[in-house]
């Protein structure tokens, strides 16, 4: 290569502009990929974080009989509708009417979902539960007209409808979980107050923060 050619090559390399990205080659995230990306960040609340981990394992292990077919079709998943904001006075009135609900036993949860009194419930079984291992548990729920998401490892989400089950699967905040479990707005507001040891102002701040998620 002659000195003149070398100089010309250096000039081209120094002045060449970065190539524009090929926008046409960018593929939008599917609903499944979007859920996985959202769930990569766990809540700071350990209880909710555990439920988020549960949701991950369910989404990653869905079978053709579960919402995997729904997800791969590219149809947007249903979402629990939430108001974007409420006043402090409204929150305080709601909380004053509500009551802190105790956790249901597995038997009570099963009764409430089979009678379709609540939108959804989740269940967890150990390795030695004969009813789950035999498949009878999920079969009976499906036969009752309920929608079942089973991770095949003992964790099951059951909804009155596909949308109800997937709302619980995607739940991130106590508001989301509360609505999926069938609690009213007053009981959910009361939960925030109880979690903040009766401090309505801090409870309201937490509630608004979660309401906007």
Order of helices and strands: HHHHHHEHHEEHHHH
Uncertain runs are: 12-27, 29-40, 54-80
Report helical residue fraction.
40-55%
How many separate domains make up the residues? 1
The overall average pLDDT, rounded, is: 75
Shape: elongated
Strand-residue fraction?
5-15%
Strands, helices and their partners?
Layout (H helix, E strand, L loop, with lengths): L2 H13 L15 H8 L7 H15 L7 H5 L15 H10 L8 H9 L5 E5 L5 H4 L2 H8 L3 E4 L4 E5 L2 H9 L3 H7 L4 H11 L4 H12 L2
Antiparallel strand pairs: 1-3, 2-3
Helix pairs in contact: 5-11, 10-11, 11-12
Which labels suit this protein?
213 residues; mainly alpha; single chain; 12 helices; 7% strand
Descriptive report:
By secondary structure, the chain is mainly alpha-helical. It has one domain (45-76, 87-211). The chain contains twelve helices and three strands, in the order ααααααβααββαααα. The chain has helices at residues 3-15, 31-38, 46-60, 68-72, 88-97, 106-114, 130-133, 136-143, 162-170, 174-180, 185-195, 200-211, and strands at 120-124, 147-150, 155-159. The protein has a three-stranded antiparallel sheet, with helices on both faces. A hairpin with a 4-residue loop joins strand 2 (147-150) and strand 3 (155-159). Helix 5 (88-97) crosses helix 11, helix 10 runs antiparallel to helix 11 and helix 11 (185-195) crosses helix 12 (200-211). The radius of gyration is 24 Å and the shape is elongated.
């Amino acid at each position: 290569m002659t000195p003149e050619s070398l100089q010309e090559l250096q000039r081209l390399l120094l002045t060449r502009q970065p190539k524009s990205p090929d926008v046409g080659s960018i593929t939008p995230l599917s609903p499944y990929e979007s859920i996985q990306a959202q769930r990569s960040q766990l809540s700071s609340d350990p209880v909710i974080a555990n439920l988020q981990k549960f949701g991950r394992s369910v989404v990653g292990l869905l079978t053709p009989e579960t919402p995997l077919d729904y997800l791969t079709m590219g149809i947007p998943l249903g979402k629990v509708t939430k108001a974007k904001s409420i006043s402090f006075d409204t929150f305080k009135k709601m909380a004053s009417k509500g009551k802190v609900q105790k956790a249901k036993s597995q038997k009570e949860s099963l009764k409430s979902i089979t009678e379709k009194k609540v939108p959804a419930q989740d269940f967890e079984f150990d390795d030695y539960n004969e009813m789950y291992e035999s498949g009878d548990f999920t079969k009976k729920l499906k036969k009752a007209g309920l929608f079942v998401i089973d991770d095949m490892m003992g964790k099951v989400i059951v909804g009155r409808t596909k949308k109800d089950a997937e709302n619980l699967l995607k739940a991130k905040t106590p508001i989301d979980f509360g609505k999926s479990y069938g609690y009213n707005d007053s009981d959910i507001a009361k939960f925030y107050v109880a979690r903040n040891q009766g401090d309505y102002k801090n409870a309201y701040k937490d509630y608004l923060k979660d309401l906007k998620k």
